[in-house]
């Protein structure tokens, strides 16, 4: 069982709970200022937090689908299927918006290979209405991968638990981040 810790993101403007053994991708490669990226040390699971311009759909379900479809396009996915979408209210009663979670699956051919990987996408959208921002947190969980980075049922369940903890714990501490 991974131990978890509250991580400060974007200079402490956002906090959330993630496993403490995750690797900060910025230590390995260039990461845009609008992203925080973490890698699981023992699998191909990755976590990406992005600050994006608010997308057109006002409906949060449709906006979450838009971000999922945009990710599928960026991944050149052969197919993208949404399995579920739900609202997760902020129980802390602070200013952090309600979370809209989406679980989906994408078939992705990575690194110009002909065989496709099956990647479960765990996505959550926090719409910061007042700043015209969509904060999107994504867990990419490879279920079948050509490079051996796929996770089995136990790895998937662990990533799902980590995702649920992150969704419920994400807190926007400083809205000035989105100025």
UniProtKB/TrEMBL annotation:
Keyword terms of this UniProt record: Protein transport, Transport
InterPro entries associated with the record: Mog1, Mog1/PsbP_a/b/a-sand
UniProt record, GO biological process: protein import into nucleus
Keyword Transport: yes
Gene3D superfamilies (UniProt xref): Mog1/PsbP, alpha/beta/alpha sandwich
GO molecular function, one term: guanyl-nucleotide exchange factor activity
One protein family per Pfam: Mog1
One CC-aspect GO term: nucleus
Keyword Metal-binding: no
Family: Belongs to the MOG1 family.
Protein name: Mog1p/PsbP-like protein
Species of provenance: Pterulicium gracile
């Amino acid at each position: 069982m991974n131990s978890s810790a509250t991580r400060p993101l974007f200079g402490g403007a956002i906090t959330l709970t993630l496993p403490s053994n995750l690797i900060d991708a910025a230590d390995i490669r260039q990461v845009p200022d609008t992203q925080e990226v973490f890698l699981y040390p023992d699998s191909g699971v990755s976590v990406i937090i992005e600050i994006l311009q608010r997308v057109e759909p006002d409906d949060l379900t449709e906006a979450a689908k838009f971000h999922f479809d945009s990710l599928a396009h960026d991944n050149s996915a052969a197919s993208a299927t949404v399995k579920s979408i739900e609202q997760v209210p902020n129980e802390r009663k602070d200013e952090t918006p309600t979370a809209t979670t989406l679980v989906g699956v994408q078939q992705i051919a990575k690194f110009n290979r002909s065989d496709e990987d099956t990647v479960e996408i765990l996505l959550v959208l926090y719409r910061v209405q007042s700043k015209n921002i969509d904060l999107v947190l994504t867990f990419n969980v490879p279920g079948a991968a050509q490079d051996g980075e796929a996770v089995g049922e136990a790895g998937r369940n662990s990533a799902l638990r980590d995702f649920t903890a992150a969704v419920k714990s994400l807190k926007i501490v400083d809205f000035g981040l989105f100025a």
